[in-house]
Amino acid sequence: MMERAHSLLLNEEAFSQLAEHQRAEFIFEWLNHLKKLLPATDRTDLKHNQRRLLDQLSGVLIGSPGPPTRWLLAHCLALLYRLGDPISACLFVDRCNDIIRSRDDSPSGLPTRLAAIACLGALFEQLGRMLIGTFKETLTNLLKAMKNAESQGRYEIMLSLEKILQGLGVSAVPCHRDVYKAARTCLTDRSMAVRCVAAK
Questions:
Q1: CATH 1.25.40 fits domain 2-199
Q2: Measured on CA atoms in the order 90, 63, 44, 48, is the torsion positive or negative?
Q3: Centroid of chain to Cα 126
Q4: Which residue blocks in 84-150 are alpha helix, DSSP H?
Q5: What is the tens place of the pLDDT at every residue in 3-55?
C-alpha cells in the first residue's frame, strides 16, 4: 500500500481506504517521496499542479502532524514555492501566522501550531527577501508566541528564527536586537534543547 504514496499529488483514494493508525505513515511516506520528486519535476508540471498540491499540504498542516512529518512538510512547502510559482507564498505565511496567533489549546492545536512555526522557518530560509514584506509581522508574532510557549514551542521558534535570519541575510539586521534578546533569555531555559538552539 505504501508504494501508492509515491506520486506528486497525494493519492486521496488510497489514503481514504487506510485505517486511522496507517494514515500518518502514509502521509510521511508521501512527503518523503515528494521531497525527492519536487526537484526532478518539470517546472511546467509543477506550476500546473501547484494549487492542488498546496491544498493537500495545507491539509497535512492542519492535521496535527508529528515532529518528523512537520519538518518534511515545511521542507516540501518551501521547495514547492521556490521551484514553482512563489507569488502566493506571502498568503501562506499569513496563514501560518494566523495559526500561531490562535489560542487553540486542544490536543490537535499544539502540533498544528508547531508545524506552522516550522513552515515559516523553511519558507523564509528558501525564499528569503521575497518575503520581506511579511517579516516584521512574522517576527513580532513568533516573539510574542515565545512568551507563552512550552519548551517544544520555544525550541521550534528558535529554530525557525535561525532559518529566517539566514534566509533574509542583511535585510534582517534592524531586528537582530529583538532576536538577540529572545535568544539570551532562552540561554537560561530549563530545556537543554532550547538552550542549544538559542546558542546557535
A1: yes
A2: negative
A3: 11
A4: 89-101, 109-127, 135-148
A5: 667 889 999 998 999 998 899 999 999 999 999 999 999 999 999 999 999 99
